[in-house]
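User: Can you fold this complex?
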Amino acid sequence: MRARRWEALLWLGPSLALIGGVVVYPAVALIRASLGRYSITGVYQGSVGVDNYARLLEQPALPTVLVNTAVWVVAVVAVTVVVSLALAQLLNHDFAGRALVRWALIVPWAASLIMTAKLFVWIYDYYFGALNYVLTSLGVLARPVDWLGEDATVMAAMMAVGIFVSLPFTTYVLLAGLASIPGDVYEAARVDGASTWAAYRRVTLPLLKPALLVAVVLNVIYVFNSFPIVWTLNDRNPGFGHDTMITYMYKIAFKSALRDIGLAAALGVVNVLLILLAVVAYLRTVRWDDADAVAPART
Amino acid sequence: MLTRLLVVVLAATALASACARGGGPSITVVIAEYSKDHTRPFWQALVEQYGKQGGAKVDLRIIDWNTIDQQVSTMIQNNQPPDVLNLNSFSSYARDGLLYAADDVLSSTTRDDFLEAFARGGQYQGKLYGLPILSSARAFFYNRDLFAKAGLAGPPKTWDELVQAAKKLQALGDGVIGYALPLGPEEAQAEWAIWMWNGGGDWKAGDTWAINSEPNVRTLGFLSDLANRHRVTQVNPGKTNRTDGAFQLFKDGKVGMVIGFSPLAKQLDAEGKVKYGVAEMPTTLARPVTLGVEDYLMAFKKKDNREAVKKFLDLYYQPDNITRWITAEGFLPVTKSGLERMRANAALKPYLDALPNARLVPTTDPAWDRVKLDVQQTIGLAVQPGGNPKQVLDQLQRNAVAAAAR
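Assistant: Here's the predicted assembly.
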């Protein structure tokens, strides 16, 4: 019996080692760093306890960055999911060229985020950009707009890119969800005299809930942690006015006068807790909704 | 079973690290990537030459400027600093006691060959730690075709002339920009330094920071006026970076005037699209001032690495080697022998002439490493509509004083 236990450990060993090395060790290192003081060069100068966390709360930019992050995550995920629902519905139907569209949808997913972001920097450019050219030519705009320079448009411009790159994954998750809905439930709905819209609302959406849940939770995590888009599209703007928690953390560590590894690590720990909290809160809300909304349908 | 597994893992790790070390002594050399075409080939060849002369094994890492601060910081956090490092700052490393002084790792002939100003720019508390690796000097670029079209005889010499010239250029219409002003985060401290000096101000007065001095407030007000009152700059100058902003517009022939440097000239020559002239900076002073930029090599104190590092550095500083690289990258010399050799190149004349009068930013002060980042992240806000130059400079001054006290 004892020998069998060792054997099990041997089989589990590689994955345990991987989890230890990739998940546990970095987490421990992050927490340790968040309790330390570092010189600007990176030399460790001893422990400061929770001082870094206290200083984090004093940072004048923190409220702005928190609001930015909330707006960024909520808007990108919400729009992504709504558009993906429509796209998945479309791709679930048979039409000429469906395979082509399905492939085309993968492209933004397959391209490197930095490349995509750089591409959009040029599309948005005030002087050379395609967007201004098209909009002014069509007469939509009287004069070009500095999409990435104006405070009013930066966030929206970044969100558009965030949505663009999130669509493929989300659409495919929902498409898989649609594919798993058996055809006979629709038949039953039709026999009961349900309109297309009613069938979608009362049959498709409830049955799609598991896929939707996965899509939302994973997207919240991805979008919250997204670095390249905000970093690349916002690199011309001084200060922290359009940063999210993730780019703010990087700036604290390396690109601002703070240059403080300890403080950045503290923010890193806060980020992990924040995202955990958000996901748990979301799951609880949804399950509670679930019980209410689905119960009458079952009767 | 578990113990045996552990032994295997440990043995494998030991083997891997032994392979990485290759048995003999080895040094890690970290170089910033100045260009895709020239940096790696030169250093790779230098490493081979070093190997042939019986030098240690070299782990050469070429790192792009965007991530080099982060990567070096990580190396030091993990207690694995490089042996030789190339960067644009050095004094914080010297203050932390990580570096060899030049006396320990350079032969006296090499040390004596450094140009005076650059040797001074590498000193921390009276000792040379930051070994000059190359330099550059900014100069005032103007588009000759646009100047001719606007009926301008030559480059402006004073700030009033600059405003007049910029207005005439801007009046050409068709998207022509008078002066391209990049005060976005990429290199704002350089653009600001040149204007600041020519407005009669400075970073410091004696040993204390003087960022919000009266002349500096006036100068930043002048730049804000260029953007918001005269409207002769590109859109949102406080949010325009140098390389993909101001330089790109100048290379596209849209800009009348911009502050550039020799690598920009090299690109313009290669593209052949813009006819440009190079002049001295317009100024409010009797003589124009320009910015000299010095980058550094540093030698990290590690056990038993002094001889290997010394040999490597002396090889780089052989006049043939250093001049070959600096020429290839389009930068300027830091040694007397290099200056002699590069004088023959007529294209470099305006920069070489400017070099002796060029001023350096205060890299010798460890507080500078924070001040620089602070300027990059805030000064652009002062020239945006509604920005307040005095307020921005006051804040920078307060932060600089605090950084100096750390």
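Chain B has two domains: 2-134+293-356, 137-292+365-405. The first strand of chain B starts at residue 26 and ends at 32.
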